[in-house]
Specification:
2 copies of one chain form a homodimer. By secondary structure, chain A is an alpha+beta fold. Chain A has 6 helices and 10 strands. Chain A has one domain: Trna Endonuclease, Chain: A, domain 1, CATH 3.40.1350.10. The longest helix of chain A is centred in the N-terminal third of the chain and has 14 residues. Chains A and B meet through β3, β4, β5 and α3 of A and β3, β4, β5 and α3 of B. β3 of chain A pairs antiparallel with β3 of chain B, so a sheet runs across the interface.
Chain lengths: ~200, ~200
């Protein structure tokens, strides 16, 4: 693990003594499925109302067979103009995108599209909470990075193809991944909203 | 149900002297298209970030032709589990459904599904702003009715098939429809958030 400068840097939502393999990796579920399961957990427990938006589809042809429901026979995937997830948590608007990589030291910027960055900037301007959840599958580590930190980096480093893990560790919030719900990102949101001071992890 | 004191009743967002024919009816656009246009206006002017969710589709079969993009060849419409519109306005989470009717004196309750009502109740419990936009096409009148007023009515009147216009006039907020943007529902939201006292309309 990276050594952080004294008194700075990493801000885990929960102090993780040593990174354990994420349980969902073992169960063979992917990151998106785990976020959906987490959101279902939050919904069932009255903790937040967060939904994944349906995939946008361009419908070209629909058949209406007699005595049967409409059947779409020609359609194409469209690129989403917003992020994948949004909802409400204690009056706060949350808006985020979730991505994963197999890289170990950096997160590829190509995972984000210009229009998603623009969307997050617009959400920020309306005082919404926009962020990304970044999952390093090989490391079994997940981070919440605020759009307020991602966007300036994205804009300044158009030529650069990825965000270093060090940057994410410095500015992001690590999400524990070894309990139920498996990606408890609301713990990070609580810290952000509570304005808790950044602290160094005791695990270093 | 709550009884409002005398002199309260209808709360138009703007005093409309006499209901004028909605301009969008003349242009041949439907209610949904006008709401989308209104949201585009709000987005372009930095006033709010509200999007319509894509229609949920159950994809059964996809072809991947060589040198061509993926083509969905069998898919079906699914019923949405949430409302159609959501987004953020000055830090507030907005969540709503838009419906229209050709009726003149009442709005059919069948326009709302149980799961949409449940979703709006969950949004309210997270301090989100949930509501419906009800458009009477024949009358050319549009109302914003808070979910906090709709839900108790819906639950108490399961046997009743519609909400009377009188109820909507009493508890709802009338949205002017004769300017750009054509359905300026944010004016109602501003009044709700500002806690402005209810007032009777001069047009009654």
């Amino acid at each position: 693990m990276v050594n952080y400068p004294v008194g700075v840097a990493m801000r885990p939502c929960k102090v993780v003594k040593s990174p354990t393999k994420s349980t969902f990796g073992k169960r063979g579920m992917n990151f998106e499925a785990e976020i959906n399961a987490t959101n279902t957990y939050y919904l069932a427990h009255g903790m937040a109302v967060i939904h994944k938006k349906p995939t946008p589809i361009q419908i070209v042809k629909v058949d209406y067979p007699k005595r049967s429901r409409a059947k779409i026979t020609e359609a194409y995937f469209r690129q989403a103009s917003t992020t994948d997830y949004s909802g409400v948590y204690q009056g706060h608007y949350l808006d985020f995108e979730a991505k994963e990589t197999q890289n170990k030291t950096s997160f590829p910027l190509k995972n984000f599209h210009d229009h998603q960055i623009e969307h997050m900037a617009k959400v920020l301007s309306q005082n919404g909470l926009a962020f990304v959840l970044l999952h390093f599958t090989t490391l079994s580590r997940t981070f919440l990075l605020k759009a307020a930190d991602l966007i300036p980096f994205y804009q300044k480093n158009a030529g650069q193809k990825s965000i270093s893990l060090a940057f994410i560790e410095k500015y992001g919030y690590e999400v524990p991944t070894n309990k139920i719900p498996s990606i408890p990102y609301l713990e990070c949101i609580q810290k952000i909203l509570g304005g808790e001071p950044h602290f160094t992890t005791t695990s270093n």
